[in-house]
Design a protein that fits this description.
The chain is of the alpha/beta class. The chain folds into two domains: 223 residues, Rossmann fold (3-Layer(aba) Sandwich); 97 residues, Rossmann fold (3-Layer(aba) Sandwich), CATH 3.40.50.1100. It is 42% helix and 15% strand. Strands 1-2-10-7-8-9 form a six-stranded mixed sheet. Strands 5-4-3-6 form a four-stranded parallel sheet. Helix 3 runs parallel beside helix 4, helix 3 packs across helix 7 and helix 9 crosses helix 11. It binds ligand AN7. The site of ligand AN7 has 21 residues, from helix 4 and helix 9.
Length: 351
């Protein structure tokens, strides 16, 4: 049967109101790609699979929650949706709103959003507003304005976002027949780790799939859940997870604990190294934040704090590398230039 989008496929397992009116871009159904070379690089002896969420319609996992949130908003008769975003939520909200015929407004932290995300939000027709502050400031503003005016908030505080994002856990269990032993993923505002845990526990009750341990990974400069307190001025090259006050932080900690997993931090250097290694060893290019889960896994294995021998590990890579091309190009000198002559090309590549 052709894939018809997540609400059609998994709608009966999602707690959505009867008025929900499906808005879909045929999101989800993303591949679980084996990563044997990277597993060997990390010491080997275990199975590593990449859930490549960058292959969603707007290039990130946010589309799973957005199909649910915008479908509910449309069915309720909302005219406008709003969100704060480090970029991916903005692009996704703008695309689904466009498809639903709704107006979208997105607030982003000034100068801290990757080019591909800002371009997406603009292309899909959102009203984009830069806040002279952090993501956390922007989130506080959209919460206040949506309480005061009839504007629908589509950040992951919105419970339907969580419902939609549970589908990633369902897909992994459906593909493998069981839950993996470990699931590692980046953590920013903590909606995704909350959703995965809700999805896995629901499926386990329904189909006895078992439960994974969750390894949530924050960037070291934006690691409130590791430090145990909010971070006033979060800083990281992984701008998607440059968040100091995660809206679902408590639930993330609970998910980590209940799963007998944990939340750890990875440095910017570890994140960028992993981004490069994943692309070069496996041909999978993800944005920096999306490499954080794997960077945290590698660091834990290195420290001997994790035992995965003969186990199956799924790493969630949340967004596509194309979202943030500058991270790669700015670190390099410009490619070599040759005149349009065969000898010059031979000289450049065969030498
Ligand atoms: C690629 O778009 O918060 O822990 O505003 O873009 O559910 O927040 C993005 C988050 C991981 C963290 N990977 O997920 C936003 C935003 C990527 C992301 C996360 C984000 P959550």
């Amino acid at each position: 049967m052709p894939h018809r989008g997540l609400l059609e496929k998994y709608g009966s397992l999602l707690d959505l109101p009867a008025h929900t009116q499906t808005v879909t871009l045929l999101e989800g159904n993303t591949p679980l790609i084996p990563a044997p070379h990277l597993a060997r690089e990390m010491g080997g002896g275990f199975e590593l699979l990449i859930k490549f969420e960058g292959l969603n319609p707007t290039g990130s996992f946010k589309d799973r929650g957005m199909t649910a949130a915008v479908s509910e908003a449309l069915g309720r008769g909302a005219a406008t949706v709003i969100c704060a975003s480090t970029g991916n939520t903005a692009a996704s909200a703008a695309a689904y709103a466009a498809r639903a015929g709704l107006k979208s407004i997105v607030l982003i932290p000034q100068g801290k959003v990757a080019a591909g995300k800002l371009a997406g939000a603009l292309a899909y027709g959102a009203q984009v507003i830069q806040v002279d502050g952090s993501f956390d400031d922007a989130l506080s503003l959209v919460v206040q304005i949506s309480e005061k005016h009839p504007i629908c908030l589509v950040n992951s505080i919105n419970p339907y976002r969580i419902e939609g994002q549970k589908t990633a856990a369902f897909e992994i269990c459906d593909a493998l027949g069981t839950a993996p032993d470990w699931l590692c993923l980046p953590v920013g505002n903590a909606g995704n780790i909350t959703s995965y845990w809700a999805g896995f526990t629901q499926y386990d009750l329904l189909k006895a799939t078992g439960l994974p341990h969750l390894l949530g990974v924050q960037a070291a400069g934006a690691a409130p859940l590791v430090l145990g307190h909010p971070v006033e001025k979060p800083e990281t090259v992984a701008t998607a997870i440059r968040i100091g006050r995660p809206a679902r932080g408590e639930q993330a900690l609970q998910a980590a604990e209940e799963s007998r997993g944990r939340i750890v931090a990875a440095t910017d250097e570890q994140i960028l190294d992993m981004q490069k290694t994943l692309a070069r060893l496996e041909g999978i290019w993800v944005e920096p934040a999306s490499a954080a889960g794997l960077a945290g896994l590698a660091a834990e294995l290195n420290r001997g704090r994790l035992e995965v021998r003969a186990k199956r590990v799924v790493a969630v890579c949340t967004g596509h590398g194309l979202k943030d091309p500058e991270i790669v190009t700015r670190a390099l000198t410009a490619p070599q230039i040759v005149p349009p002559k065969l000898e010059a090309l031979e000289e450049a590549i065969l030498r």
